[in-house]
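Dear Dr. H.,

I hope your travels went smoothly. While you were away I took the liberty of generating a structure for the chain from your last submission, since the lab meeting agenda had it listed for discussion. I wanted you to have the full record in hand beforehand rather than looking at slides cold. The sequence, exactly as received, is reproduced here:
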Amino acid sequence: MMLTGLVALLPFVFVVDVPKRLGAAGIGWLLIAGGGNVAGLLLAYSALRIGMVGIVAPILSTEGALAALISLLAGESLGVEPALLLAVIVIGVALAAAAPDRARVSTALRLRPVLLAVCAAAAFGLSLYAAGRQSASLAVPWVLLPARLIGVAAIAVPLLMRGRLQLTRAAAPLVLAGGLCEVLGFGAYALGARHGIATAAVLSSQFGALASVAAFMLFRERLTRVQLCGVVIIVIGVSALSYVRG
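The corresponding predicted structure, in token form, is as follows:
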């Protein structure tokens, strides 16, 4: 995915102007944005390998709320209503993380994908905030470039050197679509963040609801009533937060 994204992004990097005054702080924020994105993807895919999409995706969708919280701690005005909605979203995450079948699923197997998803959401939230800070002063391709470079250097190159960088014919279109959509989605967020990091972050986290619906339709995943309630709370909480911040 990072290779695909890098190939798609490089032509735009060469078209836009090179940043003239970036500074150590700016480079640091770009590294946080890129590193957080890559770490979040690794954690998210690890969670999806062993957990249900309908549970992992809603937890990942809290990345926007986390980015908004970081913005608040950094001095951005949030207000009472958004703060209350963040608390509601946390409750939804706890309910969505409930085990689907306590009789057949061990505690370790229940908790591992949830913990991975929570860590991924934290990494994504930090990445969103860092990218949002830099999006106001840099061209979007330069904001997107660090994650692709870090991903290729830290993941693709080592796999290539060990002869493990392999791609099946069945996975190729999914990898291509994933890499392109990741670049397009993050680029759209970077443009939106120029008008407000918190608002853009929570709006971008709507993917959780879409992923849950897709998991139900494509994979026939079933959720318990408690889990479904948690998913609904997350969706409503993120949507309400988007409305309040809008």
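Two observations you may find useful: The chain has one domain: 2-245. The chain is about 80% helix and 0% strand.

With kind regards,
E. W.
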